[in-house]
Write a structure and sequence with these properties.
Elements: H1 7-15, E1 23-27, H2 28-41, E2 47-51, H3 58-64, E3 70-73, H4 76-85, E4 91-93, H5 100-109, E5 113-116, H6 119-127, E6 133-137, E7 152-153, H7 165-176, E8 184-189, E9 193-194, H8 198-214, E10 219-221, H9 239-252, E11 257-260, H10 264-267, E12 271-283, E13 286-291, H11 300-304, E14 310-313, E15 331-335, E16 344-350, E17 359-362, E18 384-388
Parallel strand pairs: 1-18, 2-3, 2-11, 3-4, 4-5, 5-6, 6-8, 8-10, 10-11, 13-15
Antiparallel strand pairs: 1-12, 7-9, 12-13, 12-17, 14-17, 15-16
The structure holds pyridoxal-5'-phosphate.
Pyridoxal-5'-phosphate binds at residues 51, 53-54, 72, 74, 94, 191, 194, 223-226, 261-265.
Length: 390
């Protein structure tokens, strides 16, 4: 597993003082290169939106702007934030439980596409009297086995997201009636799974597109969820295979407007969480490296139950006259400063010879990392943030 940062990140980590750790570092040139490759792998006709909830840092939203057609937002807060960070960029507003105040704010902000999650929500939107473009979010049944083994399934099973086909049909009847308030029905939205490889994603896309076409609609947003493999940072979602498959799909649906809205697979790789080993302890036959910070900054490994990939940047600086605490065995558990056994960033991973004072840089910390973490728990200082541009 190659989790080593590039020179831009490594040099900055080495230049930081211990008190400046932990820190999040974002490799913006790497983000641009990755986003450009994703864009290039997709047919020109496919619209690429970035799901802002994966990481809404303004510097990332801005860096992505040349490569994306717009942004997917999932709250009134995100709508306002994205509107301020990338003014004028098209936005699609999704998410269950939109409040009347959020709806009013998003209407004022000029949201480009509304992802309607329920019949009730459609009625609320129609009551606003605004003529806006809507996609109906469908929770489609998915063929048995199609979603096996994926990280998180948002649909294809009972869920609070979107509507069953019966709900979609009720919306269609409403939209056909005089009470529809001028809402413009554009098509279908579906975000059914997370963690699919290119073949799985393509199968799901075909399912959603067939459903959309079957309703006589000409626009489909097939969501995000492209797989990110935390066990192997070098193994990326096969955008070329997915793009080739989409090309064939579009050949069969020449009038279709197709949109995707990935989050994690765009920004996970550009973020790094750098820290240092504070202490190295031997406990009942196992080694524990306690690092500055922890899962209150980088919650990703705790929520997903994986070992966050990392690289060690050894430091020869040891200011104390006593022996440097050092890992005794080949495997070490990297834990944080929180007083809970759940504060584990990587359990029993190979790190022979790891010492107190060595620096550790966790990879793939650019999505669902800082912004999903419980920062205030135990009142440790917040990390630094560095947006590196080459
Ligand atoms: C979270 C979310 C996404 C992005 O999912 P990723 O797994 O980050 O690609 C896209 N669409 C919707 C509706 C979402 O809720």
């Amino acid at each position: 597993m190659n989790a080593a940062p590039g020179a831009l990140v490594a040099r900055r980590v080495e230049a930081l003082a211990p008190e400046e750790l932990p820190a999040f570092l974002y490799d913006l040139p790497a983000l641009r290169t990755h986003a450009a490759a994703v864009r290039a792998a997709l047919p020109a006709r496919v619209e690429l939106y970035y799901a802002a909830k994966a990481n809404p840092e303004p510097a990332l939203l801005t860096a992505l702007r040349p490569y994306v057609d717009g942004y997917e937002v999932s709250s009134g807060g995100e709508a306002a934030h994205v509107g301020a960070a990338v003014p004028g960029a098209p936005t699609a507003f999704g998410g269950p439980g939109k409040t009347p105040a959020e709806i009013a704010a998003a209407l004022a902000a000029g949201v480009h596409r509304w992802h309607v999650e329920s019949v009730h929500e459609l009625r609320l939107l129609a009551a606003s009297g605004e003529a806006v473009d809507v996609l109906l979010r469908a929770n489609l049944p998915v063929a048995e086995g199609r979603l096996d083994g994926v990280a998180l399934a948002m649909g294809g099973r009972p869920s609070p997201f979107g509507m069953d086909p019966a709900g979609v049909e009720e919306c269609l009847r409403l939209l056909d009636s005089p009470g529809s308030g001028g809402l413009r029905l554009r098509g279908i939205h579906a975000h059914l799974a997370s963690g699919l490889d290119a073949a799985g994603q393509l199968a799901l896309t075909e399912r959603i597109v067939d459903y959309t076409a079957g309703l006589g609609l000409a626009e489909a947003n097939v969501g995000g969820g492209m797989a990110v493999d935390y066990a192997d940072p070098g193994r990326r979602f096969d955008w070329t295979a997915y793009g080739t498959g989409l090309e064939k799909l579009l050949d069969r649906h020449p009038g279709l407007r197709l949109r995707i809205e990935p989050g994690r697979s765009l920004t996970a790789y550009c973020g790094w969480y750098a820290t240092e080993v504070l202490d190295l302890k031997h406990s009942h036959g196992e080694d524990f490296a306690v690092v500055r910070g922890g899962t209150h900054h980088l919650r990703t490994p705790a929520t997903r139950g994986h070992a966050q990939p990392f690289a060690v940047l050894p430091s020869e600086h040891w200011p104390h006259p006593w022996e440097r605490p050092t890992a005794a065995g080949p495997a070490v558990t990297l834990s944080g400063q929180l007083c809970t056994p759940k504060d584990v960033l990587a359990a029993r991973v190979p790190a022979a010879g790891l010492r107190a004072g060595d620096r550790v840089v966790f990879a793939m910390a650019g999505a669902y990392a800082w912004n999903i973490s419980h920062h205030e728990f135990l009142m440790h200082p917040h990390p630094g943030f560095h947006f590196l541009d080459g």
